[in-house]
Design a protein that fits this description.
It is a single chain. By secondary structure, this protein is of the alpha+beta class. 40% of the residues lie in helices and 25% in strands. It contains 26 helices and 33 strands. The strands form seven sheets. Strands 1, 2, 3, 4, 5, 6, 7, 8 and 9 form a nine-stranded mixed sheet that branches. It binds adenosine-5'-triphosphate and magnesium ion.
Amino acid sequence: MRTAEIKRRFLAHFEANGHLVVPSAPLPAIDDPNLLFVNAGMVQFVPYFLGQRTPPAARAVSVQKCLRTPDIDEVGKTSRHGTFFQMNGNFSFGDYFKEGAIALAWELATNPVAAGGYGLDGDRIWATVYLDDDEAIDIWHKRIGLPLERVVRRGKKDNFWSMGIPGPCGPCSELYFDRGPEYGPDGGPEVDEDRYLEFWNLVFMQFARGPGTDKENYPILGELPAKNIDTGMGLERMASLLQGVDNLYEIDEVKPILSHAAELSGKRYGAQSGHAATQSHPDDVRLRVIADHVRTALMLIGDGVTPGNEGRGYVLRRIMRRAIRAMRQLGWSGPVLPELLPVARDCMAPSYPELATEFDRIAQYAYGEEDAFVATLKQGTTILDTAIADTRSAGGATLTGEKAFQLHDTYGFPIDLTLEIAAEQGLGVDEEGFRRLMAEQRARAKADAQARKTGHADLSAFRTVLDTGGPVQFTGYVEVARETTVRALLNRDGAPLDAAGEGETVGLVLDVTPFYAEGGGQQPDTGVITTGGGQVEVLDVQSPLPGLIVHTVKVTRGEVRPGDEAYAEIDVYRRRAISRAHTATHLVHQTMRNHLGESATQAGSLNAPGRLRFDFNTPGAVSPAVLHDVEQQVNEVLMSDLEVHAFVTSLAEARRLGAVALFGEKYGDEVRVVEVGDYARELCGGTHAARSGQLGLVKVLHESSIGSGVRRVEALVGIDAFSFLAREHVLVSRLAELYRVPLDQVGERVEQTVAQLRDAERELEKLRGQLVLGSVAGLAAGAKDVDGVALVTTEAPEGTGGNDVRTLAQEIRGQLAGDRPGVVAVAARAGGKASLVVAVNSAARERGLDAAALVKGALSGRGGGSPEVAQGGGVPADQAPALLGAVERALTG
Ligand code: ATP
Ligand code: MG
């Protein structure tokens, strides 16, 4: 039975039994900050299980895309673990419980194929239950008729479920299928989990648990008033059973990738392996890893993940790199993803059609990443090989943490690769040392950033200020000045101060402030705060903790104290220029998306007075034509003078309105939406112009790459944009004046001039060459006899090009009498260095004279070439005569 059919039957079975069909959530777990990827069907239903939201129906069914990074090391070695896989699940929210769940699962698993089931032989199914779950045992034995020998009690580790936090928990019951003795020993799942394959897990959410971090040790508070069911059936595992293959890499959705990889690398998959996963040849394991990882990469990029150095992006990068490396190990050195990714697409697109329509975008990221990795590999491998050889010759068995760190830090060579390559060579790596250096570097970077922003690294003082006074209110969306009170003063180490006098720089906290703290890419406000006894200048504003705003101020007059009444006033001109830049950023973002597609999402930004910098995800360079169109469209929006409007709403409502949320950013339930007319709508906490017309003008300066898949545009806004264009105009006018042509002919004239200059240089070089060659006959005639060899030594005129020096030597040799041994040595000086060319004729060759040997002799081993003509150099220019002398001495000696 094909995988798509297994999936269809699952949904049909549960829909017929009153379940609402719910689509899969995307792989990135955006709503859960503790989770990178969705790893089970229940993840999208968590708010229902926790009672935070009301489910749309009491029963639901889904086929969820899942990714389990902890399983990455199992892939290919067991028969049942993929990184990406699909979990079919049925869910009950306070509706049916144990008996319903067990009966529904059993029915689908064992009903004959003709009757819509999977037709598994019930006599080969085993069930596990939690130690004291007699209720479940009774259902399995009495209601289903499973003999007690095939119902196994297991402990908390395997058969008790909780989310690790206070909330629902409860026993599980798992279904296993006995694949037969060729897969392992008898004895049930306790003995061999590969022969007895777990295909379905039923979780009975029966109790409420209390706090506790220990996985197996937490208080059970009592029975839940409404009990839930959460089940997961591995789609690939069921497919491997129903398709009669040995493992989930051989099912219809994966095998074609594996086969193509085998074909490319010339391996016969399976020829040297047994049925059980433990009897696998290493090459077969590699092929399975490749097939799994290529499919996973496809699904990840399909769901919007792009390769990067952190978080989800790093998981993707690591998976692609492992696949590429495994192909190298199998002996295939050609492109990997361009060969295998289209095969994966063809396997998966029937179930996920967007993979076909989006394939160009997916492929661009994947192939770009492969190119970058191949370059890294080339460089890193050479360095690593040297390090390994050095370690060996010093008699060591482990590569130092410093070396691994250097490879990572300087060459971008990933640690897992270092580990793998070292292990292949029989060496260990001081991983602990590596991690320590990484941690140190991270701590340094963090302390640095923190110290730069707030003046000190310890946040506890801020915490106290926040806890005693409550959150600081920011009023700067609606006003630029206000009366307020000084709540606290802090010195650079975070210690509270009673007063700050003239000339001192301190941290100052107000009860209410119109000053915007740096955030969301927007630069902080500056300005002035005046109290009865003094005045301070605000240099910087940061929010070291949510709800707390700290002004870095310099006391310019008198003295300030906590409790002082104060008047806080921001620099309005600066703020307006920043706000205009921020609004411009939203317009550039939206316009980029219009041109490059939805995936061109913001990856960072800077909104400073009059200028902006905007980083975004896109696979390749943005062409000048697109950039020009973007700029034009943005300026058209300015002229439409759209109203900029901000409002607070629920995250769900904002999503419904299509507001752009930044990928990976965490938002609360309440969010602020900023819209520019109907053109751009984005979640944003920053300040903005009131109307797009206030921006005046936006000038896009340039576009560049700042890392794999991330591009940066910079632009000027308002008067800064105007000044830039005005300056350029002055420059062009000046050129026009110098060339005495109208403005629109300047470009042409510059081109002409450059071409003329190039021609003139070429001509000059030619003349110089002729001059040099003109001296050939004279030099040949002046050959002196050294031990029966005609020797010409000469220094080429200063500035003679390398090729000309060579030609000169050969020309002189041509003029020497052919029947006599002849040697020509020409020295030259250029760029502060001396070089040497030696040419010998065939009569000299017969005498055993060798040009390369002569050069090497003169340059202590450096240089090379053929026995007829050779060259070398790199010594200080004043050694030119000495080089010639050395050649002559070699002939006499
Ligand atoms: P195992 O012990 O075999 O790793 P598990 O206990 O981690 O499985 P669950 O967390 O109970 O599995 O997940 C529910 C179902 O999802 C399993 O019964 C199995 O069919 C499937 N499943 C789990 N992990 C994977 C994986 N890495 N690849 C494919 N299917 C999986
Ligand atoms: Mg597992």
